[in-house]
Amino acid sequence: MVEAEGSSPPPTIKFAYILRGYVMKNIRVVVVDDSALSVALISEILERNGYEVVGSAGGLDEVKKVIKETMPDLVTMDMTMPGTDGLECTRAVHEINKDIRVIVISSMMDDEIVSQAKRNRVSGYIQKPVDDGDLVAIIERVMSAEELFTVLKSEYFEVFKEALRDGLNRLTKTLITYEEEFLCESEYTTEGVAVMIGIIGEFPGKMLISLSKSTAHVLTTTVLKREPSGNDEIVETMSEFANIVAGNACSVLNKRNRAYGLRVSPPSVLRGDNMKISPLNYPTYTVIGETVFGKMLMNVGFKRGEIDAWT
Description:
Elements: H1 15-19, E1 28-32, H2 36-48, E2 52-57, H3 60-70, E3 74-77, E4 80-81, E5 84-85, H4 86-96, E6 101-106, H5 111-119, E7 124-127, H6 132-172, E8 177-184, E9 188-200, E10 205-211, H7 213-224, H8 231-256, E11 263-264, E12 268-277, E13 284-291, E14 294-302
Parallel strand pairs: 1-2, 1-3, 3-6, 6-7
Antiparallel strand pairs: 4-5, 8-13, 9-10, 9-11, 9-12, 10-14, 13-14
Helix pairs in contact: 3-4, 6-8, 7-8
C-alpha cells in the first residue's frame, strides 16, 4: 500500500491507563539464561506473582527446542550466553512465532545494547539484579498491550464496515451491499480516486477508500446536490467522505476502550489509471461493496505499536 505523506508519529500512552480495569489471561513464560541461579531466581519471582513458568533454556539450541515444545506467551532473555547472545536467541524465537514477546534481563545495559534490542523486536529491557516490582510492571505493560491489540484485531474491520455504511447513508440516503471480503496479501490495482487516511494511536494503522472516476463523480454530485465544479472538488469531497468514515470508526473503537487513543491524519489522495497499491508489512483487510453509484473498495488494517516498556 502507498504510504500517506505527512503522518504524525504515534503518541506515547501510559500503559497504566491501559491496565485500568483490564483483566489479563494466564501468562506462560520461558526463562532463558545460562546461569542456573538466575533461572531459579527469575522463575521464583514469576511464579510468586502468578505467572506460569513452562520451561527454561541456556543456549540457542535449547531455546529453539523449548519454544517449539511450549509455545509460551513471553520469554525472559539473558543477553550474554556461551556461543550465542540474547539477540540471536530472540530472532530464533520470532522465527518460530513472531507473536511471542521477549523481555531482556541482563547485567549489561547501555544505549547501544538497548538500541540493538529494540531493532530486534525486544519489548522490554531491565537490568540485573532483578527487582520484583520492575519485572512485574514490564510484563504487565507488554502483555496487556498484546491482549489489547488482540481485541482490536477482532473488532476493527466490522466497525469500519459499519462506519462506511453509515457514512454513505447519512450523506446520500443510499445503501451499500458488501459483496466480497478478503485478507490483502499481494499488490492490487485500483483506478480513479484512492483516498488514504493514516491512523495514529497506540496501534497505528491505515484506511484506504478507492472508487472509479465515474463513481466518484456521481457520488460527489449526489452529496453536493449539483454538478462538481471540477476534479479538485471531487477530490475534496471524497477526502472528506473518507475522513468522516475513518473518524467515526475510530471514535467507536475509542469508546469501547479509551486506551486505543486513535486519531486520524489528514487524507492523502491518489488519482490515475491502473494505480498499483502494495500491501503493508502488516495484515490489512479489504471489502468491496456495491452502491447505486458503482463499486467501492475499502482497505483497513492496524499494526502493533512499539511498546514503551523500558526501564
